[in-house]
Amino acid sequence: xxxxxxxxxxxxxxxxxxxxxxxxxxxxxxxxxxxxxxxxxxxxxxxxxxxxxxxxxxxxxxxxxxxxxxxxxxxxxxxxxxxxxxxxxxxxxxxxxxxxxxxxxxxxxxxxxxxxxxxxxxxxxxxxxxxxxxxxxxxxxxxxxxxxxxxxxxxxxxxxxxxxxxxxxxxxxxxxxxxxxxxxxxxxxxxxxxxxxxxxxxxxxxxxxxxxxxxxxxxxxxxxxxxxxxxxxxxxxxxxxxxxxxxxxxxxxxxxxxx
Length: 259
Ligand SMILES: NC(=O)c1ccc[n+]([C@@H]2O[C@H](COP(=O)([O-])OP(=O)(O)OC[C@H]3O[C@@H](n4cnc5c(N)ncnc54)[C@H](OP(=O)(O)O)[C@@H]3O)[C@@H](O)[C@H]2O)c1
Known about the structure:
Blueprint: E1 6-11, H1 16-25, E2 31-35, H2 38-47, E3 52-56, H3 62-72, E4 76-82, H4 97-118, E5 122-131, H5 144-164, E6 170-175, H6 182-188, H7 198-206, H8 213-226, H9 229-232, E7 237-238
Parallel strand pairs: 1-2, 1-4, 2-3, 4-5, 5-6, 6-7
The structure holds NADP nicotinamide-adenine-dinucleotide phosphate (NAP).
């Protein structure tokens, strides 16, 4: 496609897993870091070892998607990481239409339509990473919007793999475990009467068993740049699987250790 250069696009790059992924990928390629909070993105850009272009965009809007496509311009997208996500906690009695739609818009629609809008910018062999969740396959009381949107995201990734296979675009779905991020702490602090699994999350935190976002970023860098096409293109990459740890942990603990 005669692209001037090849880029990575990372959504949800202002915090948590997306932030760590943008920082790690910048070691290999220029990164467009997408989220809504400008100041946080600027900090990511300053702290990253490589080139990170902060891009304020709401992924649930047409304007936000268009801004990403404009920023990519004539360059080629080699890596796309879908990290943006929200985890609303509501019971069936309190969940309102806006909250449900916002979860679906962020966790599902944005992944579909951003991939669609970038389809003609992907270089051959481009890699798209979905940050999935065991909540796609585990019903959680109080987590209806999150679990349903994550299940939809899982299927979406499988369908997109079929849709774009002819173009040589590869898709991976990953499970980052319980990660020490704002989203996780929001769930930990939720009313346990509404979200009983908040107790499981809190127990992992108390045991120092929340995965450090920086380690997830390293895992994803290795997935993007250190795996064969055949290996990358699968649905069940788990950060906690020791089979691949020798490739990217550097012998360091996966856990942030913060209670
Ligand atoms: N933490 C875990 O234990 C865990 C486990 C499994 C899966 N995951 C998944 O990992 C992904 C990242 O989550 P995290 O834990 O790193 O959470 P986080 O720290 O809360 O990050 C969420 C990111 O999504 C961005 N975002 C939300 N809505 C957006 C929108 N409309 N437009 C653009 N950006 C938006 C936020 O940025 P702004 O607010 O600046 O827009 C933020 O950068 C999510 O998909 C989550 O479901 C997390």
